[in-house]
């Protein structure tokens, strides 16, 4: 393992005001505000306790990262992705009507809300992924604190495996704001929302994703595509 560096203008009822900033992916809490891990963590997607019947999901303009995620071609990449990637089709298909994200293949115990959102979204967009690691002991804080997931790639050294990893990296950065993304590591390259930032990080068999957490679940969260 390498180093890990890691909202419609429509009036709301007096019972609830909920803002979910995401055209296709959002996360909010129905059971209370989440506990922030630190002052730098994003908690805007976690709203106050309200009945599930009254939650209103709205969409806003997408926020993209500052670099061209479509250009991700990590070391020994298998070439450019098809113009209409699975990740892009997934986002377009879900843009009209938000739906709940089911639990994916990751063990969510100990994960923070933004990390859970990222794990569920990857599971929904890439059904061939059957193993996503989460909380585990580590000398670095990201996995133990529920800020990181490891997306294991089937046949990671094959051309298909490499391209699958590349596409997951692109998917992560297309959704960087919604995931409160901190970084991604894949095939020896460390990526941030500002762009690739160095090599020598290993991770040839899995894509590592780190988020800013958003606080720990309280038990009433609903994760929306």
Number of domains: 1
How would a textbook summarize the main sheet? 6 strands, antiparallel
Along the chain, the helix and strand elements come as EHHEEHEEEEE
Radius of gyration: 17 Å
Count of alpha/pi helices: 3
- Side-by-side strand order of the widest sheet: 2-3-7-4-5-6
Low-confidence parts lasting 5 or more residues at pLDDT below 50?
1-68, 77-83
User: Which structural class best describes the helix and strand composition?
Assistant: alpha+beta
Please count the beta strands (DSSP E, at least 2 residues each): 8
N-C termini distance: 30 Å
Shape: globular
The share of residues in extended strands comes to 15-25%
Helix percentage: 10-25%
Quaternary status of these chains? single chain
Average of pLDDT: 72
Pfam families: VldE
InterPro entries: ARB_07466-like_C
Protein name: ARB-07466-like C-terminal domain-containing protein
Domain ARB-07466-like C-terminal: 108-206
Output the keywords.
6-stranded antiparallel beta sheet; 225 residues; two-stranded antiparallel ribbon; disordered N terminus; single chain; alpha+beta; 17% helix; ARB-07466-like C-terminal domain-containing protein; ARB_07466-like_C
Provide an overview of this structure.
This protein is α+β, with helices and mostly antiparallel strands and 225 residues long. It has one domain (1-225). It has three helices and eight strands. A hairpin with a 2-residue loop joins strand 4 and strand 5. The protein starts with 25 loop residues before the first strand and ends with a strand. Mean pLDDT is 72; it is low at 1-68 and 77-83. This is ARB-07466-like C-terminal domain-containing protein. Pfam families: VldE.
